[in-house]
Specification:
The protein contains 7 helices and 4 strands, in the order αααβαβαβαβα. With 219 residues, the chain is mainly α. About 2% of the residues have low confidence.
Length: 219
């Protein structure tokens, strides 16, 4: 995508990176990205609030005649995001610390883990293009058995078979782990649904995670 955006700039099409409003010291740089930043900043609501401020400022620059509208809309939305952040924190704090272990198909939730106190493990690494090997499945299965993790999660943008393979490997080792539900990672829900909005997606994810790790998830 970065190459595409660069080509657009060369053609005179205005493109703006909303994460340019985030201090670089707050961004994660996983080894797998070879010095590049983890892009999944939206899983820390406080970082996404900084992206909102960047959008507001850029719209005002492009359309100063309507600056009051952009300021008012941003102020309203930022208040909603502040409440969302409080909600996620409250849900997290309702769990025992030892239960806060999130295992998903790929490593999209590192900002979430840092912001809300979860240990995060992903089968594929940070990119959905990463190949999953037998050793990856077995390593994750061993971790689940040793830690007695009650639930793992599928993602809307990643084939379910990868997590099902982990579930089967865990069962072969004499332990049962449930699939706790579907999380939204690199995409939101369908338009017109609560999960089709950023706020609804974040609420869905934290509710699904907390319910499943507390023993109220799927099968």
């Amino acid at each position: 995508m970065s190459d595409l955006f660069e080509q657009m700039r060369k053609r005179g099409i205005n493109t703006i990176a909303v994460t340019d409003g985030i201090d670089r010291s707050l961004l994660l740089t996983p080894p797998e990205f070879e010095g590049n930043y983890d892009p999944h900043v939206w899983f820390d609501v406080t970082l996404w609030m900084k992206a909102v401020e960047k959008v507001r400022n850029e719209l005002i620059k492009m359309d100063p005649d309507n600056s009051d509208v952009y300021r008012e809309n941003a102020e309203t939305y930022l208040k909603e995001l502040a409440e969302l952040h409080k909600y996620v924190k409250a849900q997290e704090e309702s769990m025992l610390k030892e239960k806060r272990v999130l295992i998903t198909a790929h490593d999209a939730f590192n900002y979430f883990g840092r912001a809300y106190g979860f240990e995060v493990r992903g089968l594929q690494g940070i990119s959905t293009a990463t190949e999953v090997g037998t050793a990856d499945v077995q390593d994750l299965a061993n971790f689940i058995v040793v830690r007695k993790i009650p639930a793992i999660f599928v993602e809307s943008s990643v084939p379910q078979r990868y997590i099902e393979a982990v579930q089967a490997a865990v069962k072969a080792k004499g332990f049962d782990v449930k699939i706790g539900g579907e999380l939204f990672s690199d995409a939101m829900g369908n338009p017109g649904t609560p999960e089709g909005t950023y706020i609804g997606m974040v609420r869905h994810n934290i509710n699904t995670i907390v319910n499943a790790l507390n023993g109220k998830g799927e099968s």
